[in-house]
Amino acid sequence: MLNRTLIRSRKTAALAAVALAVTALGAGCSSSSGGSKGGSTTVAALAIQNINATPYADVKSGGTLRLSIPTFPAQFNFNQVNGQTVAVAAVMSALMPTPFIATGAGEPENDPAYVSSYKVVQADPAAKVAQSVTLELNPKAVWSNGQPITAHDYIVQWDALNGSNAKFDPAGTTGFNDIGSVAQGSSPYEVKYTSSTPFGEWASLFGIVFPAHYDATPGAFDNGYLNQIPVTGGPFKLGSISSSSQTVTVVRNPAFWWRPAKLDKIVFITLSQSAAVQALANNEIYNVSQYDQVKNTPGVVARIASSATWPDIIFNTKNNVLDNVKVRQALTMAVDRPAIIASQMKGLPVPAIQPLDNHILLPTQVGYRDDSGQLGQYDTAEAENLLSQAGWVPGAGGVRYKDGKPMQLTIAIQSGDDIGSSVAQLVQQMYAVVGFKATIQTINANDYFNDYFDNGNFQIAIFE
């Protein structure tokens, strides 16, 4: 397996325990009230980690690993608005520089293949520099076209992702927009960047680095890795991309300057979650996330571990119902997250975990605590009270009305997302209890982000 974990993306393949989060998207997002309940769950969460960690030296060389991915990517630039998906993260983390990797406890550490050492300094506030980071790059690191990987690549990527040029379409600007400058240090292999405010997730900012040429202009940023992977810089290199078979194949990079990959190749195969179960039984792939369906499959060893993935319920605050903070708070409190978690963990040989009550840290990470306050509680009575305060009163058929219009919206899910579908159905039932009629809209997975979510063309969305 790859010993490389993408920090910036929370979407990684695993036999995952669900920790449901509820988030508002857009201006005027409500925050939790009531303060912190404190308490770390790190030890308890780590107790269920069963990942069969194996030293590099003990892993045999050779062989082909076949992994399922939920969608066949078109945009392979992970930093582009249409590229930040679980499939792209899986493929590109094998092919491109990942300056920082995550430990089993979710803590960042430098990948010496790309960053030899680093230093983080909390600077003098009087200088209006709250944080500075220095990366010493590995001078042996090179792109597949022979060009060295240098500070210039980081500088140009920051220019593309910091939001200063509206013609770029990044997946997000958070953290990058707080950086005042990214510059070369004493050599082309030293990167220095300073921020006006401290950013705790600084190690995630350059999660996957691309060559400067493909970040230099909006056109190259959008199209350079569209339906192609022209330049790589990882332990694997591109073998092939097949739209007919919906597969991406990567092969060992013989020119890799660090510890060579153990595998000969990895084949990423596009499969729905249900199809992946059958493919595993047929020995066609080696990964699924449905423990209960595969635990007794001959030849399969099923392992349990908490994961960096969770279903989100996203409210679009541009909607004329969801633009009211009390409505969003009510719909948050109307969701019985422990019940959803219990349903998703049914059949797993571990106790149900607590809901995710922190928007920054996962339960497996040091420093995690419950910051959800009152809004983290399941309380249908308070949810109904908030809806009434917002002007939505009970009406015919158990549905609430305001100004003669029913409280009815759609929940968008991706096709082939069995977890998202089951969560949406449970949420639909929970919303009905407080008088909110929700209908489920299933959207083709390949169009979900590009045509719907990224454009705000949704009301409520659920995805991992």
Q: Could you characterize the architecture of this molecule?
A:
With 464 residues, the protein is α+β, with helices and mostly antiparallel strands. It has a domain of 152 residues: Roll (Dipeptide-binding Protein, domain 3), CATH 3.10.105. It has a five-stranded mixed beta sheet with strand order 1-12-18-16-17. It has a four-stranded mixed beta sheet with strand order 2-11-10-9, with helices on one face. α7 packs antiparallel against α9. The chain is globular and about 70 Å long.
Shape: globular
SS class? alpha+beta
The order of strands across the largest sheet is 1-12-18-16-17
According to CATH, the fold-level topology of the domain at 312-463 is Dipeptide-binding Protein, domain 3
CATH class of the domain at 312-463: Alpha Beta
E-strand count: 18
Terminal residue distance:
23 Å
- Taken as a percent bin, the fraction of beta residues is 15-25%
Low-confidence stretches: 1-46
Describe the SSE topology:
Layout: E1 21-25, H1 42-46, E2 64-69, H2 86-95, E3 100-102, E4 108-110, E5 115-121, E6 131-137, H3 151-161, E7 179-184, E8 190-195, H4 218-223, E9 236-242, E10 247-252, E11 265-270, H5 273-281, H6 291-294, E12 312-316, H7 325-333, H8 337-344, H9 380-389, E13 393-394, E14 400-402, E15 405-406, E16 408-414, H10 418-433, E17 437-443, H11 445-453, E18 460-463
Parallel strand pairs: 1-12, 2-11, 16-17, 16-18
Antiparallel strand pairs: 3-4, 5-6, 6-8, 7-8, 9-10, 10-11, 12-18, 13-14, 14-15
Helix pairs in contact: 7-9
